Structures are given as C-alpha cells and as structure tokens.
C-alpha cells in the first residue's frame, strides 16, 4: 500500500487532482478484495469515472450556486451587514440537511458497487427522508444540551442498517439507546468539567482567571478524549452486536486501548507523510475492524437472490453518479 | 491438461457450486457438477481487483452480469495471465495510466494557451456580467476599501475633476466613467468593476501638473474599457475563493476582493493595452502625453530613493523603462494643458 500511495500521489499531482477519484477507486478495490466471507472476497465494482462525474455534478449543482449566493448577499446588502450574515443561516441549514443526504447516498453507492459471489448490495430507503431525520434530530441536541445524542446515534444507525441489503435480503438491527446512556453520561460530565472553569473565567473577565481555567482544563482534556473514545467503542460494539443478517449474528470487540493505539499511530503516519499515505491509514483501519468483527450463524445462501432495484435497469447514469461521499 | 478446483456462482443467488476449471486456447472452461460445461472466452473476462501471481482469482464475464468464478489455487493466477495478458497488473496499470497522462497533457496545453495567447475564459465570463451588477459590485468594493465609502467631495474640486473626465471622454463614447478621489493612505490609483476609478489623495498631491493626472486617469480608463478588473476578479474568485469554499467556510468575498484589487498587478500585456488606450484618449482630447511619461519617470525615481511606502503604486503598475520608452516614442500632437491653473488648484484641494 505504501507504493500504491506514492503512485496515487504522483499521478494526482500531474493530473491536477483528477486522478484522485481513480486512486480512491483503486484503493477501494484492493480493500474490498482483502475481505473474505466464507473464503470468497468482496468485490468493489465502482469506477473512478463515476466518482469524478459525481464530483462535477456536485460542483455545478451545489458549490457554484453557493458561491454565487454568498457573493450576491454581500453585494446586495453590503459586507458585514446584518442581512448578509442572516442570509448565511439558511445556507448552513441546507448544508446540515445535505450532509445527512450525502451520508445515505454514499453508503448506498458503496453497497450497490459491492458484490459477493456476484450478488450486489443496495439500500431500500429514501436518502432525502434520511436527510430530514438527520437534520431534525440534530436540532434536538440544542435544547437537550447534547443528551439526545445517544438516542440520535442509535436512531440513525438503525435506519442505515435496516435499509441495507445484500441482494434480496435485509440487514436488521434492533437497538435502544439505554445501554449507551452510562458511557455517554460520563463523557458528557467530563466535557462539562472542562467547560466550567471557562464559563467562570468568561464571567469574571480577568486575565488571571483565564490562565487558571487553562491550567485546570488542559489535563482534563486528555481524560475527556479517552472517555469520548470509550463511548464510541461501547456504541460500536453494542450496535454491531444488535445487527443480524438472515440467520447470522454480528459481533464486534473493539477495545479502548487498541483503538487509541490505532488513532495515535494513524495520526503519526498522516503527519510524517503529509497525508500522502492515506491509503495506508485506510488499510490499517479496515484491518483493525475486520480482525475484531465476527459473523456467526447459518445463512441459507440460496435464498439470497440478486438485487433487482433501479441500478440494473437505468445503468450508471448521472443521478447514480451523484451518490458520492463528497462531504 | 491441468485442471483446478473452483467455486462458481451464477449471479442469480449467493449459492455456490464446486467446479472444475480448465484453461484452453478458447478460454476458461468451467465444468459444473450437473455435467454442464461453460466456456468463458479470455477477451470477455474481467476482474475488479488485479490478478496477481500467487493470489486467489475472482473473475466474471462482461456479458453475464453477476456470474463469478473463484479459484483459490495460488498457481492459477499466473497461468491465467499467460493466456489472458490484459488481466495482468502491468497491462492494467498502463490502461489506466494512458488516459491520465492524456488528461495531464490536455490541462498543460490549456494552461499554456491561456498564458501565452489572448484567449481568456475569465474574460469571457466577465463580459457576460450585466452592467448593473458590475456597478453594484464596484460600489461595494470601494465602500469596503474606503471604510464606508467616504470620498473627497469639495464642490469646486469635484467640478474640476468632472471637467477633466469630460475632456477625456466627451460624449461617453466608451461608456460613462465615474472617477473619485479618496484618502487611502497610499499612493495609488485603481479601477473597480463598472468603469469606476479611484485616485488616492496622495497620488493627486504627487502629480505636479494636470497633464500627469490626466495620463493616470486615461490609463485607468483603458483598464476599464478592456474590463481588466472584472476579468481579474472572476479569475481570483474562480481560483482562490472557490478553493477556499470547498475547504469549508464562506469566504468574505468583498474584503478579499478589495485587498485583491488594491494589490492587483495586471499582466504586461494588460498594462500595454491600458497605455495604448491612454495615448489614444489623450490624443483625442488634445492633452500633451509628456505629463503621462513624466509621471512614470517621477515614480521610478522615487522608487530609487526607496522613500515611504512607494513600492505599492509601482508593483501595481510597473512603470518599466520599456513602457516609458513606448510612450516617448510616439509622435507628439498639438495640445493644450488638461486643466487651467485655477481648476487644477481646486482639484488639488478636493479633499480639503
């Protein structure tokens, strides 16, 4: 992967960035190929051209209108005017909504371009509806001071999993937020502990109390980060354990120490190679998860028949190309 | 003939059948348990992952969506690539590399064309912007530069300035120009979109005769006629601000645009075009060109002494010897001073 990383980096440079999409595709093909189920590999059938077209469409439909809108606001209302700034609010709202849509569409694109024994995956739901759920549940974080987060986490994961399919069959997840509450509370409390001296310092407005706040909160940040990782580990393990496919049950056994080790080493690699070794980091991350992921049970494979949704009929048109994890 | 054990799935379901696989000149032969034998011609076989020697092989048939053959035996890959070289890693790399190199070459040619010829996509876009939008954008830029749009407006001075502009462009032949003087804390003159020209108070004081000022204003009018500011802004917004937006965050277009305009340096070709316009306008107005050249010489001298923040004006409008020579080289025409003494005095006091 180190050699491939360098090759992708050089080709991306000399093609002024265009190769990026083909490089990403090549990395995915190798990653997928390295995953075995019942001794047979997964296959990634997406192409660089699709990703590139998706990028062009997003540029024309989203980025250029956004630039034009921002310029128009400033020109019509004047720079730094109240109206120009207020005009940005709908832009942010739309952006949050589209983030949800993009998450769903990216997962759908990847599933549709994934095959095992020739059977491909897909998603059966509606990305726009998911975008809406993503958006309004995001708003609940404000009045609940973040406490709706575990509930939101589980709700979104359930939609994404229950909509996922391999061929004709659904994945399923039954989960509640309750098992996540305790690790969440601990994480939440640790961040509050950090915020408290700052809130005091802001009210006091003296330099001394600001320095005191810095001294008090700095060591606590490490603790809070560890507790946040702990929450993520608990959530991932729990949600994977609640996932089923036909007769098979998934299991995930991440540990806090190993995940911290992975994050730190990945950060070091990214720093020392200036991001050129991103494919190496992706490979390490994939290997880390797959090593700890288990699937147990008997599945009637003959009952999983080929997916029959739109993809095969419409081919890989432009709408399909929009299915890109742009964000 | 050697045969390999393989796993075949038909693409209809995820069930798999054990198969015996053979390689022949015709293609890959797959013998299924039921007695049926499939033939996959070499040229119709594909693999999404590269077929590497010593690795398991997973192949499909282009015409048959979803059917897959998996062979675990590490020797199969090399034998297959021998028969179907296009599946090998080398061929695969080259197949991808070729279009990418073509793209790189195309982009390089495009950049060369834009750099070395008059073809300018930014100019084409700029020329499509409606007049009203240009004016509004220019107004906002000036407001952003002058902190609230305060320009000098002593009535007698403004009257004199109007007279000078009218003389350079008597019947709005090249569209209506709006020329203003503002305290900018620097020695500069620039043009913003919508044929709007701003001359700094310092530049006004630096000019010794109305002819010098007329030369500078005529030069800026040349930039305006050639829509240089619009073109340059489109280019800068297209490149740097677009990039910034993709990185996240809404750019402060006006502030950056204002900074950009003040520091902007046009290409040599653009400066030459503006100079040619300046000479044309001066000649039509019967204003001596001597002042225009003299102003550049004075700036050059001032740069030599390294006085104050003088680099600014020069980096914006590099008054190279070649440009001065070009102005001097042209034959003089019958002319009268740009403004009578009385008006020139009033104009100098426009910020008073």
Give the structure's gist in a few sentences.
Chain A has 327 residues and is an alpha+beta fold. Chain A has helices at residues 2-14, 19-33, 48-77, 82-86, 88-112, 127-139, 149-162, 178-204, 207-241, 256-272, 278-292, 311-314, 318-321, and strands at residues 36-37, 40-44, 114-116, 119-123, 164-166, 169-173, 243-245, 248-252, 293-296.
Question: Any overview of this molecule?
Answer:
The complex is a heterodimer of chains A (327) and B (352). By secondary structure, chain A is an alpha+beta fold. Helices cover 66% and strands 11% of the residues of chain A. A nine-stranded antiparallel sheet of chain A has the order 1-2-3-4-5-6-7-8-9. In chain A, a hairpin with a 2-residue loop joins strand 5 (164-166) and strand 6. Chain B has 14 helices and ten strands. Chain B has helices spanning 76-83, 89-116, 121-128, 131-145, 155-168, 201-206, 210-225, 228-246, 253-263, 268-284, 290-305, 311-316, 321-329, 341-348, and strands spanning 3-9, 17-23, 27-31, 37-41, 45-46, 57-61, 64-71, 178-182, 189-192, 196-200. In chain B, strand 2 (17-23) and strand 3 form a beta hairpin. The longest helix of chain B has 28 residues, at 89-116. Chain B starts with a strand and ends with a helix. The interface between A and B is large, with 45 and 44 residues.
